[in-house]
Amino acid sequence: MARLPRFNIVDIPQHIVQVGHNNLNCFFDDEDYEFYLHSLKLAADQYQVDVHAYVLLPGSIQIVATPRVPQAISSMMQSLGRRYVQYANHRYKRSGTLWGGRYKSSLIDSEAYLLSCCRYVELKPMFQNLVEEPKDYLWSSFRHNTGIKQDHLLKDHKVYKGLGDSRKERAIEYSRLFRYDFDKRLLNYIAETIKLGQVLGGDAFKDRIEKIADRPVRPMKRGRPKSINKDKDKVDA
Question: Global pTM?
């Protein structure tokens, strides 16, 4: 089956996921994580991508980012992937692929889902039992978005900025989102959306994306289409 082209729409944020080949680890120590983040910063600046949230896990990465020019996300991820693979192959005297195929991505309705998607990404270390609290994990955007430590890789989205008039107010309001358990239906919806490369948003947002992209964004119904002429079906049978 031919791969559908990704949606690359300027100023619409995306949730990006890439996993290791055969679900194997891609990061092995602090130096690896630091090199990847440094490379992400370089690629994001070069290709004009605003990174709002991220998490680097031993065997995968997740990023929430907004492209500011056409094809910015794909260019950033291609450059970043090549740079990190070259680094890892050289450092660990290995060869071949590191990532398990192309990255996956989904468009995000920022007004409805951006903060939930950022929270989903930053809670991943807890979901995988790597830490007890998201603040304890060093390789995510959580500490920046909650005001613990500034991360120069990140650029605040307008929805995040709308949480308060100052950085301190925004960090406090964002931190409050983590006081409550993540709704399981929303958790599954975000996970399924990124898995299938679908649009994370309501009908109005999907209608808007279909007009911009000039192609459907909703999943096609499975099965054979029903015949309009039932009598003809009976004769043919």
Answer: 0.89
